[in-house]
Design brief:
Length: 288
């Protein structure tokens, strides 16, 4: 799933590509991807691109006084095409193509989603805040407004909720997903299941620094890469996420996994849980 660093890199890349360009049309290949009807999709047709922005994990293309907002969900992506086919795609729920943005010079963007579980969402709105998911976003963790005091208030409000879930909750902190929450907690040397409000002042500062450094470093590595390279860039720099059974680059212990119904997390027991493995929820309760 694209998270804050990848979406930020996409925004920077698209700003350069879309500068001075107009949207000739948007071809909808998967009808279920479009979540709004007013303004209509045609509202961006013929409009010059005024800007490209990020809101958490949402990508926002502003054109003609409205916003074409994309949430790429778990399996969505954007592919740049120097030349798009002249014939619009035939709508099909079986095709990975969800929509195509055609620009005035014949180039464009293919918005795709792999797999059969279709969660990618497209909105045409007058204001980004008209998208419910954007309206309820928490603070951006790389913004100047996200201070140690901001994080401390979030942890207090979360009570005994587990740190992993707090970091991933978009209404609490915007832009962090499954992968970077694993990485942040590894850098902070904290258990994914530690209670949020149980951290003392020193631990809260450590977590704050881990959030800012992990995401900031990922953005710096990602910006400048085209969309085609971002997935590989992200995977290559993961220390624990997606590396079950491999060696922790910090201590040399094996990277372990806890699986859920539709996702999993990875961690290092030596670095994060005092050497004590966490039990897999599929077979037993979590070890504290």
């Amino acid at each position: 799933m694209p998270e804050l660093p990848e979406v930020e890199a996409l925004v920077v890349d698209l700003r350069g590509r879309l500068d001075g360009r107009a949207i000739a049309r948007v071809d909808l290949a998967t009808f279920s991807a479009l979540k709004t009807f007013d303004p209509p999709l045609q509202a961006v047709h013929g409009a010059f691109v005024d800007g490209v922005h990020r809101h958490g994990k949402f990508l926002d293309i502003e054109a003609g006084g409205v916003h074409l907002v994309l949430h790429l969900a778990r399996a969505g992506w954007i592919r740049w095409r120097d030349e798009v086919p002249k014939v619009p795609p035939k709508p099909s729920n079986k095709s990975p193509l969800a929509a195509r943005i055609v620009l005035d010079d014949g180039s464009g963007l293919d918005i795709t989603e792999a797999g059969t579980r279709k969660s990618l969402a497209m909105y045409v709105v007058r204001s980004p805040a008209d998208v419910e998911g954007i309206a309820r976003l928490g603070p951006d963790p790389l913004s100047d407004d996200f201070t140690p005091a901001t994080l401390s208030a979030i942890l207090d409000a979360a009570g005994r909720a587990q740190l992993k879930g707090v970091l991933r909750q978009q209404g609490t902190i915007a832009g962090i997903g499954n992968a970077y929450s694993d990485e942040i907690l590894h850098v902070a040397r904290m258990s994914p299941f530690a209670p949020a409000s149980g951290l003392d002042d020193e631990a809260r500062q450590v977590l704050y620094d881990a959030i800012r450094s992990t995401l900031g470093d990922a953005v710096r590595r990602s910006v400048g890469h085209g969309a085609a390279d971002l997935k590989g860039e992200k995977k290559a720099h993961m220390a624990v996420h997606g590396r079950t059974g491999e060696t922790c680059p910090v201590c040399g212990d094996v990277v372990r996994e806890v699986s859920f119904a539709d996702s999993s997390l990875q961690y290092c027991a030596t670095c994060q849980t005092g050497g004590k493995p966490l039990a897999d929820r599929r077979t037993s309760r979590f070890l504290k």
